[in-house]
Amino acid sequence: MDGKIGLADLSPRSWADALERARRLRPLVYTITSFVSASFQADGTLAAGGSPVMSRCPLEAAELASSADSIVINTGTPDESSLLAMNRAVKAGKNIVFDPVGYGATAFRTAAVNSLLSACHPSVIKGNYGEIRLLAGQAGEVRGVDSGSETAPLVPAIQALAGRTGALICATGPVDVLADGVSAIVFSGGSPLMAKISGGGCLLGSLMGVLISGGAAAGTSAAIVMLRLASERAEERAAGPGSFRAALLDELASLAPEDLMSQGWRMCAPPEGGKGA
Known about the structure:
- By secondary structure, the protein is α/β, with parallel strands linked by helices.
- The protein has one domain (7-268): UDP-N-acetylmuramoyl-L-alanine:D-glutamate ligase, CATH 3.40.1190.
- It contains 10 helices and 11 strands.
- Strands 2-1-3-4-5-8-9-10-11 form a 9-stranded mixed β-sheet, sandwiched between helices.
- Helix 4 links the parallel strand 3 and strand 4.
């Protein structure tokens, strides 16, 4: 954990401060990601206030990682070269956002994610419900690289995963569940059009990468709130998935710290019984 603001101390002011800091300092975010979503993530990094560098080359991974303010690791299209780059990057960098895309889909990908996680200490592990359920040791299903489950992982299991890894855990779905080893928060809102575009979850990882250098809890939660708010605004302007995708980047770029100050309603404790949704 980052030792700064914890989940129990989060507020709209902490989100506004995280965004203001990013826009002022323009953190360098080194991203190793899927070739499907790399351009979208680079654009999202810029929209949130960061400076993106995108490379899957293992020959420069450690050098890039050591100079970056944060690292985003995404296993959406793994191959031998990119996995080697990831392994070198996570050993040399800091403020790591780890997105285990497709965990459980194949034996190869599962082993690759397990190996990478054993080699690093991520600040945040972000995945969809199916991926996080499997990482947490619960029954889950992944179709391709998508979640096969609409049921959020049980909060105690997410908290146990946070305790084992030392990371904040974010399980994304109809609501997003964010947990550390002690506390958990649920975030609501957003647009159904997010499910109609590719790379929406990957984009969230990039927003987290921009915002976490000042504190993992504040930055991770600010990214969740930003994406859900921007998606709602983009939906109002969009005629369909294509125009929604463009409008989403526009809305992210136009968000100001003050816009986050009215968004406290999105954050609440999980329902009784320990379930995230």
